Amino acid sequence: MLLSRRSALTSAAVAATLPLVRTARAQKPKLKIGVLNDQSGPYTNTGGATSVVCTKQALEDFGVATKGMDVEVIAADHQNKPDLAVSIARQWFDRDGVDMLLDVPTSSVALALQSVVREKNKVYLNSGAASSALTGEQCSPNFIHWTYDTFMLAKSTGGAMVKAGGDSWYFLTADYAFGKQLQADTSTLIKASGGKVLGAAQYPFPGTTDFSSFLVQAQASGAKVLGLANAGGDTVNSIKQANEFGLNNSMKIAALLMFITDVHALGLDVAHGLNLTESFYWDMNERTRAFTKRVLPKSPTNYPNMDHAGCYSATLHYLKACADMGVAEAKKDGVATVNRMKAMPVEDDCFGTSKIREDGRNLVTSYLFEVKKPAESKGPWDYYKLVATTPGDEAFRPLADGHCPIIKA
Amino acid sequence: MIMIFGIPGPLLFGQLLLGLINGAFYAMLSLGLAVIFGMLNIINFAHGALFMMGAFTSWMLLNYVGIGYFPALILAPLLVGIFGIILEKTIISRLYKLDHLYGLLLTFGLSLVIEGLFRNAYGSSGMPYRIPEVLSGATNLGFMYMPNYRGWVVLAALVVCISTWLIIEKTSLGATLRAATENAPLVQAFGVDVPRLITLTYAGGVALAAFAGVLAAPIYSVNPNMGSNFINTVFAVVVIGGMGSIMGSILTGFGLGVVEGLTKVFYPQASATVVFVVMVIVLLVRPRGLFGKAA
Predict the structure, then answer these.
(1) CB-CB contact of A217 with A235 (8 Å)
(2) Class of domain A151-278+366-395 as given by CATH
(3) pTM above 0.95, yes or no
């Protein structure tokens, strides 16, 4: 059969556009999530690889493949250094096309990233850092603080201590943004309830392993409560050494930030009786147990704590918002994506339902736990007894007290 | 109550004592470093990692084999010492003819690898290790509440430091060792197996680090980073004491522990820096260190 000139031209034209169609399909907008946390230092177990596992679990549970979405998760180690974190984030945004920055423990690092994300108009969901300044004076329209903060810890753990008669405090504080903020938030609360702060030792972070000097000073101060405004390995070491020096006989210890991973490191024979606050416990209800069962095969030696659960919950909610507004739109405008997330109610296995406030605070329920005695623990990681529950709208600092500048505008 | 610089006397005495306890760890670690540097001319940056291995070995002995604290005090240094022999034979011995810097880089790399492997296997939060029953509890000294275990640490550290010094300075084995570092070919001509002597010296230094690790296990959380927290300070101790000087590193170790302890009372924020301030001053005034031999 002879080809007419017209049909030959048409088929040539069609053939010429074929590669274009193919590349257009390959360039279906792809979401990229960057998990930036400590993967080798003191906060490796509280965040680290388990955060990445939980983020990927959210992709699976959301069903990105069946919904036809293309999502990739990458991760890096910020080594708790703000300068390093900022350069990784810039590279991620400029070269690798990352759309959402996730986890980021260590308050000094978390605060340093606010301006970078805002400048690039991306999305920044923080689960790991504690400082309440992130939704206060340092707040940003691109930012949501997901899991907990220093105010909530102070109110829950500190409040319970004061209520039980612990009205004079001595602080052992890690000398950087997080420790200072936690000490400040707790001090405000103690003074408001009629208690007093007798002193504080601010020790260099990182690099301090021996706390005995400070513990002896705390003992000499005559305070009723030793407030630990530190985290991770520092908390573990200070509680261990407080026991050694018999502080637990003369003072009450308030571990203001402690994760289940730290309790595991201490062992129940030392940790039992401590009060602490988390917004997630793996053995809380059917849904949290189901979540843990899904995640555990990929992180067998490290059970998920609230930081990890926060990475899961934040990613899931982010994907819902992106699907709702369209991936292409979401990639274009970080502020619009965050606003869409704020407009939608949060709902997942880890935290149940919650609401995100205008200043970027996710109002999750906070739980006060007591660590079980060795005899009460029935299985691996069976560590907590629930003591009190604070609903999300009471757990956090009132909006007006935060002085977040984007609210005024 | 007596007041000294506005601090109640009893509190100050307590802090001096605590400083001595920390100094005991500095002394033991810097002693091992000084021995290795003095005899092998290797700046052993892997010392912190080997200290950590000592602590982990005692934890493993307890949890996998059921061997308690006191046997571990002997066994862990032995096992880590054997590991040291393997390291020296296979890797470090290749660098003796090169500049110090290569040894430093190599051992620094080794420490990163060792710590990384442990972090991969055990995470970073650390493992619990209990104080042995006999040494638990505390004694009221009047001016402070002194945990029995810390007293034991100072005692054990003193015994180990002094015996090491005696072995190196006062025995014929020590004399051979010192001769071998001065002039190896000559000592070899007398029929002494110098390479073996050097290997054993390295193993000995490593065993000292591991011994300190076992002592540290019940006080600090047993975690992969525990050595790197110490190592910078310990290097400063060695430099201040005079590279390679045995007695210098023992005395400086205890002395700097006390200086650091006092800083924690007056201005805690500076407690991590004070050792390095002392180091700068000493280097300016006496570049060879407080106890270093003149060139």
Answers:
(1) no
(2) alpha beta
(3) no
